[in-house]
Design goal:
Length: 404
Amino acid sequence: MKIYRGEELTYCTNIHPGESWSEIRQNLDRYVLPVKVSVASDEKFGIGLRLSAKAAAELMVPERLCEFKSWLAANDCYVFTINGFPYGSFHGLQVKENVYLPDWSSRLRVDYTVLLSELLAELLPENDVRYGSISTVPVGFRRHISSDKIIESAVSNLMSVVKHLINLEYRTGKRILLALEPEPCCFLETMSETVDFFNQKIFAGSGVKQISESLKIDYTDAVSEIRKYIGICLDLCHAAVEFEDAENLVKQIRSSGILIPKMQISSGLCIASVNNKEIQQLLEFNDGVYLHQIVEKIDQNLYRYEDIEEAVSQYYSDSSRGHLRDREWRIHFHVPVFLDSMSLFHTSQSFLKSILAEHSANSLTQHLEVETYTWGILPERFRSESIVRLITRELTWVKDQLQP
């Protein structure tokens, strides 16, 4: 739905289990329409669509795409952003680090993203939306990006998609932007290293030469073109887990000139001073489906763990040797944005509020997407209401934060 300055606000449908188009289509009736009634009954409602590679291929069949367009028109809905991060299954099965595969060194990631861009160009309204956005993996999981050759391949593949997006706008008049989403323990984690990657690999070097030669334009013009089509998906849970400072983060974004096609509004868990009691409660969140990376702060040093078990094991190992230094944990577990605490834990809501205040003062992006995809695995006491009611509460809370 459009809010105060014309920004788009929605939630990501990746929270609803479903890998085939038929399952996703059922979810739109079952969940999205009731949410629309709750938050945008008398206006158009923009959908943050998540499509697996399987669902995207199924939707590209002309008859299905035509039916979906008719459904959107009949229900006063539209699609303006797609979550192109998870290629395959995202619910029910153990996902863990496989969610980052295929990474950007693989042609499968290219083909999938190109398909999503074609679908979004078909679905994006003609006049009401400035651009469409596709969020994607931050090159890949750090352990998987193990050589300069893999990085070079990833940059080349990203540039091939940028070239496609340039040609897509020329062909359809629709501008679709690609947004890499930094995440703990991935190749791109912090804003500083993300900005460095863009400056050193995306806006310089072989990638620019690739666009320059393929479009037959000079190097400087190629850089300008690339900047128009690729940027950062700013996930606020991920940034908070990395102990980013809100004011400094925004300064880095603004000074870099890198696009923020989409901001994912999300919150994580925080333990100010780790102890055994809090660890026992944290283990309730250890669902076995997703990675829940932990960034640990001791003094001014940061240490990273790929999952809860790894951090807990290190804590008990240190304890057994008498190394009980005070430590703070930030945990990558998306929790309701309207909560500032959850039993023994705080959430990163204060960081979220700070970024939203910065956005209210001077817009960072046109696309705002709430992304609490963990409702089905939260401890029961935190999800006693219906999923429609919980999504409604999140969207209403965000809208209230952004009031002028």
